[in-house]
Write a structure and sequence with these properties.
By secondary structure, this protein is α/β, with parallel strands linked by helices. The chain has two domains: about 5-100, Winged helix-like DNA-binding domain superfamily/Winged helix DNA-binding domain (Arc Repressor Mutant, subunit A); about 120-350, Rossmann fold (3-Layer(aba) Sandwich). It is built from 16 helices and eleven strands. The longest helix has 25 residues, at about 150-175. It starts with a helix and ends with a strand.
């Protein structure tokens, strides 16, 4: 019996595509190191808006010319730079966020997530999956946030990363939820005030409170002043496991609950329940996983593994958030998708 050449070709093409997809995943660690090295060398800033040869870039970065040429070709293969002619490169559109002088810069995030401290904990992913426990504390003798407190440079990079990754979602929050019904919004774990600044800019009569640890709010004054909303905002430092400000009628938790296990999430929510008035609203801004995996966006699932390995937290489905809220005295009344298609939603809950 003769084999159909067309059928054989189709099957082989499908098989090769699956093979290439798996190989690309295996090379993921190398990709992150290539991008992280580019960020640490400041290549995007050195390139700027210009085309530059690899020898010129090597002199500017103090690197070996031949080795840097190979790094640049790898970056070109990843479509972060473009080789315009042999040995000459310019930034591609996807590489622009590696520049530190852009408002959409992601350079701090790249430096954070390719930092040796985080990479070492990733080596223990199998153990985290076997035990269900984060491996970060076992490696460093303290949890992730305790480690940041002992390493000011990394803590500063973490805060910068949170600012960079928060801004796109922060801009969607005030156009995805109507804050006009409220008088004071309290951003719990609000860091440098990026999220609250966007909310206040979208609601001129609203007042706000940024609440976080002393190191978390260290740069909040500058952020709120630059946004022109400092006169309508107060900055409070404290511990959200102990107590939160009690003068708001809307409480925002953005990317806070996914950092923690269920028990500590319930504690945070209980502190919010103690502070919130009966007519108030709790707004949880997180990635809300569908009940069945959505393969169009792997990011929240990979973040979920990061939470497992480094912090002991997790991404959750709506039903899992409902369980947490119920235990703390809240009922979820609505889930508002963000205006643009992202994995993030605004979970609205009321006291019960």
């Amino acid at each position: 019996m003769r084999t159909c050449r067309t059928c054989f070709g189709d099957k082989q093409e499908v098989g090769m595509a699956a093979h290439q997809r798996l190989m690309n995943m295996m090379f993921g660690t190398i990709c992150s190191q290539v991008v992280g090295t580019a960020a640490r060398l400041g290549l995007a800033d050195h390139l700027g808006d210009s085309e530059r040869g690899y020898t010129e870039l090597a002199e500017a970065t103090g690197t070996h010319p031949g080795a840097l040429a190979r790094l640049l070709r790898a970056l070109a293969a990843l479509e972060l730079v473009t080789e315009t002619r042999p040995g000459t490169f310019r930034l591609a559109e996807a590489g622009m966020p590696l520049r530190t002088d852009r408002p959409d810069s992601q350079a701090a995030a790249v430096l954070l997530f390719t930092d040796p401290a985080l990479l070492d904990s990733w080596k223990q992913t199998e153990e985290a999956v076997r035990t269900g426990q984060p491996t970060f504390e076992k490696l460093y003798g303290t949890d992730f946030f305790g480690f940041l407190a002992m390493n000011p440079e990394l803590s500063e990079r973490f805060n910068a990363t949170m600012r960079q990754v928060s801004l796109p979602i922060a801009q969607l929050i005030p156009v995805s939820y109507d804050f006009s019904r409220h008088h004071t919004v309290v951003d719990i774990g609000g860091g440098d005030g990026t999220v609250l600044a966007e909310i206040l800019r979208g609601a001129p009569t609203l007042r706000g409170v940024v609440f976080d640890s002393p190191t978390g709010v260290a740069e909040a004054t500058a952020t709120l002043t630059a946004a022109g909303v400092a006169q309508r905002c107060r900055i409070d430092a404290g511990d959200f496991f102990t107590a939160v400000p009690d003068d708001g009628d809307a409480y925002v938790l953005k990317n806070i609950l996914h950092d923690w296990d269920d028990e500590r999430c319930v504690t945070i929510l209980e502190r919010c329940r103690e502070a919130i008035p009966e007519h108030g609203r709790l707004l949880i801004v997180e990635s809300v996983l569908p009940e069945v995996v959505d393969t169009t966006d792997p990011a929240p699932y990979l973040t979920d593994i990061s939470m497992l390995v480094n912090m002991g937290g997790q991404e959750r489905t709506r039903s899992e958030y409902e369980q947490l809220c119920r235990r703390a005295g809240f009922a979820i009344t609505a889930v508002h998708p963000t205006l643009l298609r992202t994995s993030y939603s605004i979970i609205e809950a009321t006291p019960v």
